[in-house]
Amino acid sequence: MSNQNQVQVALQRIYLKDLSFESPDPVASFKTKWEPQVNLDIRNQNRKVEGDLYESVLELTATVKVGEQTAFIVEVEQAGIFMIKGLEGEQLNRVLGTFCMNVLFPYAREAVDSMCLKGSFPPLVLAPINFDALYDQSKNQNNK
């Protein structure tokens, strides 16, 4: 096999694209017994930058409520530029939707945790996410 046909995937750069923290009424939240309900929304976007370079963005939105009251909302867009050679179509989409997300997730997770602490709330340690299963689930929904 020649070098031209080999698959290559490499992280070129990782960066925080957007970060937002909102706490509508923190004083009321601090007075309430801390029994949070966490809703986590996960999205990703990918785009070709040029040549073999792709930007992959993992978007996380964590909404934390105590009772009926929103304690805080944290939104993170963690991004990376990946060099991907030798893949096209479904294989390329799978790498962008799984491998790249797995690389970005620990950085996004740390940003969420850090923002909670800076807002004077307990840390929000997100559980690992199976991006392969999410990708397959999304693909199955789109094929229906």
UniProtKB/TrEMBL annotation:
- Gene Ontology MF terms: unfolded protein binding
Keyword Secreted applies: no
Q: Does the keyword Transport apply?
A: yes
A biological-process GO annotation: protein transport
Mind listing the UniProt keywords for this protein, alphabetically? Protein transport, Translocation, Transport
Gene3D superfamilies, per database record? SecB-like (3.10.420.10)
- Similarity annotation: Belongs to the SecB family.
Recorded protein name is: Protein translocase subunit secB
